[in-house]
Fold this protein.
Amino acid sequence: MVVCGLAACSLITGPLPPGAERFAPPDVYARWWAMTEACSGRSGDMRDVDWYRVPGSRFMHDGQSVPAYWSSSNRIVLAERVIEHGPMVRHEMLHALLHVRGHPRSQFLAACASLVICQASCITDGGEWQLPRQDYVVLPPESLDVTSHPSLLPRESDGQRWFELEVTVRNPRGRAVLVAAPRPETPPTFGYDLRGPSGGGSGAGGISGGEVATDSSTLFFQPLEMKGMAIRVPSEIGAI
């Protein structure tokens, strides 16, 4: 059995957590599944996955408190609070598509890094990152070009509508760059504060949060390389 940081990924079919109940995934999961297929280069039928939810934000699984896990029986169990958390849901989707034990760095920390969450033992499981080249310069974060683009996605067939904030970071130089992070243990990447017409922040017509770089590879840019990440939240609790 494998447990991966914020998301636990079980490869042994066992009893469901107390309070678990089967649920029909929201329509946006089809979009997330297609995104995960595209980044991983793998294809599969999401209808083959059995989805379960558990009340609260975490539950006990294999002796640990976790918010989600996947099993080789193609069962994904999610805490109620993370059902709409795209990076975590797509993490489990990636397991369902790969059907492999562990967290290959080439998938969780490279090809699908901008779409799935991977922290703690997920990073350890992926193996130590090696610098791909030595001819790089160390520069502060402001040396990179950062852009953001907000958009309201088309309404899903179940009526739900999502707000998307796409953030891209580009190395404008013709040589490799390693970003000097001010806090090496949890180097910040970006924060966001989405506000509604009332101007309220999180819990008052808006939502705020941020992302951190949890692996050194995130801070390394090849010449002219661009990296991106998209934050998606339901418009009902987001910026609309």
About this structure: Confidence is low (pLDDT under 50) at residues 1-7, 200-204. The domain at 136-234 is CATH 2.60.40 (Immunoglobulin-like). The chain has two domains: 2-126, 136-234.
